[in-house]
């Protein structure tokens, strides 16, 4: 399905459209709604699931230059308003969790429940990551005439993978979101919050304990044996945890 949000042609998917209770899924970095469709079909069918392609990913157009978390937050807010989602539950994976958290801080009564899956909320990327990105900017013009596979190999020695694979728009966004740390504002999230973390997640450092201590109504669920993408690697395990949460709603 498509609609227009903030002048941006926006793609989204819907699962169980006749259900009366709404859930909005916000995917992670370099992903899109399609990756989550199989997982949503394993979840409680009494909910209607809206899977949104965030700007610059999937079938949704880019937003303006230099868009960051606040711009994505407002985009999601306007999507919720336009589709008239009521008492919405928001599931946010990785970058999607960062957007959902910022939304709940700015609009405390908008979601009735947050479910974070390996959320990229507290940024712990240090100077080493910024050095890698800076070196990449210098190296890439020098090696741009090399064969693609050689260029990618050389870049792989210097740059974070999410930076290598990003297009120009995504690189600009990535710079913005890496600088946006919600840690000091987490106490402002007043709605019940369920945090789901894969025990083997190597992409986002484990900060679950910090989150449950910082968010007043937070609970932690560890999915053992899974990494950062449990919806792809262990969909049944993740569905079992999510359904346990949803059955109480």
UniProtKB/TrEMBL annotation:
InterPro entries hit by this protein: AB_hydrolase_1, AB_hydrolase_fold, AB_hydrolase_sf
Q: Which GO terms describe its cellular component?
A: membrane
Q: Where is the AB hydrolase-1 domain?
A: 23-240
Its protein name is AB hydrolase-1 domain-containing protein
Leader sequence range is: none
Tell me the domain of life: Bacteria
């Amino acid at each position: 399905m498509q609609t227009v949000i903030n002048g941006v042609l926006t793609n989204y998917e819907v699962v169980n459209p006749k259900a009366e209770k709404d859930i909005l899924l916000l995917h992670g970095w370099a992903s899109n709604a399609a990756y989550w469709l199989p997982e949503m079909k394993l979840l409680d069918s009494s909910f209607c699931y809206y899977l949104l392609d965030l700007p610059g990913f999937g079938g949704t157009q880019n937003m303006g230059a230099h868009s960051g978390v606040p711009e994505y937050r407002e985009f999601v807010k306007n999507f919720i308003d336009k589709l008239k989602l009521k008492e919405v539950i928001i599931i946010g994976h990785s970058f999607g969790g960062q957007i959902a958290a910022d939304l709940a801080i700015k609009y405390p009564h908008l979601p009735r429940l947050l479910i974070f899956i390996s959320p990229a909320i507290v940024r712990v990327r240090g100077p080493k990551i910024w050095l890698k990105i800076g070196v990449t900017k210098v190296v890439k013009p020098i090696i741009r005439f090399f064969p693609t596979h050689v260029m990618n190999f050389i870049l792989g020695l210097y740059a974070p993978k999410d930076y290598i694979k990003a297009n120009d728009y995504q690189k600009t966004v990535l710079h913005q979101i890496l600088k946006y740390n919600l840690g000091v504002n987490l106490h402002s999230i007043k709605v019940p919050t369920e945090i789901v973390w894969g025990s083997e997640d190597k992409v986002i450092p484990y900060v679950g304990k910090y989150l449950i201590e910082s968010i007043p109504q937070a609970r932690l669920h560890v999915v053992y044996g899974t990494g950062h993408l449990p919806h792809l690697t262990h969909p049944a395990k993740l569905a079992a945890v999510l359904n346990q949460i949803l059955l109480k709603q």
